[in-house]
Design a protein that fits this description.
alpha/beta, single chain, DNA polymerase, domain 1, 39% helix, 2 domains, TIM Barrel
Length: 284
């Protein structure tokens, strides 16, 4: 089976609606897809309802991606097989969304001091009811011709240490793992190869994640170099974690695409090893 356990829709900062996302998954011949929007599970029911009334054969996993703070780094933890209807979990997610709102407003205040007015309102319009993110703010800066492309918005204004950067007050890794477990899910360290840290710090991060009760880590990603995959696999094994694979899909491109180049080595135990995907849709 082709499995992709990390994707985003317009319910957070993805470019495709939940319906368009599952349609794209079908086009890319994905068999199992986790919808893991940032700090929200609002897209799950939309996608499931569509699947129930379509001919698309897809195992849809209820997921989420939580932002955490760790020694000055923004670390993302994916939750898989979460109970999207758990009241406590939904209340906890609301606190994360409130922090996203606060951060976005503060970023736009800093941009206004730089002479760039109306960015918050435009970003809200671009978000179109979804949770506002830095990606929406970056797109607003491009639309106003303040930046030529989104990456320039981050390198000039929104990135760490830049003019409009605001340090978020995210929860801890331990809290994120607890939230996910309390909602019946499995906690996965997202894209560890993407964090701007040394191998020594990466090993420390994975060790603390595992010690806090984390279940798995992503060890492959589209276009990841072979030596990086080998490093991540070794660190994963050293900490007795399960293996996960996800594209972190936000929009169709040649760099990140649903299900592309996500095969895991046969020597690892995948996070889905006991999900019984072929015979049951319970919990999916």
């Amino acid at each position: 089976m082709k499995i992709d356990l990390h994707s985003h829709s317009t319910c957070s900062d993805g470019a495709l609606t939940p319906i368009e996302l599952v349609q794209r998954a079908q086009q890319m011949q994905v068999d199992v897809l986790a919808l893991t929007d940032h700090d929200t599970v609002s897209g799950i029911n939309i996608a499931r309802e569509y699947l129930e009334n379509s001919n698309i054969k897809l195992n849809l996993i209820a997921g989420v991606e939580l932002s955490t703070s760790w020694h000055g780094f923004d670390i993302h933890i994916v939750g898989l097989q979460v109970d999207k209807d758990c009241d406590i979990f939904l209340q906890r997610l609301e606190s994360q969304l409130a922090e996203r709102d606060r951060r976005a407003a503060r970023i736009c205040e800093k941009l206004a001091k730089c002479g760039h007015l109306g960015i918050y309102e435009l970003a809200l319009e671009i978000a179109d009811g979804a949770q506002i993110s830095r990606n929406h703010i970056a797109r607003a800066l491009v639309q106003k011709s303040i930046c030529t492309h989104a990456q320039q918005a981050f390198s000039k204004y929104l990135g760490k240490g830049k003019k409009a950067h605001v340090t978020p007050k995210w929860i801890s890794i331990q809290d994120a793992i607890e939230w996910i477990h309390d909602a019946g899910g499995q906690a996965v360290l997202a894209h560890p190869g993407h964090y701007d840290m040394t191998t020594k710090w990466l090993r420390r991060l994975v060790a603390e994640f595992a010690e806090s009760g984390g279940d798995a880590m992503e060890i492959t990603h589209p276009n990841m170099a072979a030596d990086k995959k080998k490093l991540l696999q070794g660190i994963m094994s050293d900490n007795a974690l399960l293996a996960s694979a996800g594209s972190d899909f936000h929009f169709p491109s040649r760099f990140t695409e649903l299900g592309r180049r996500l095969d895991l080595p046969q020597t690892v135990t995948p996070v889905w090893h006991n999900w019984n995907l072929a015979t049951s849709e319970e919990g999916l």
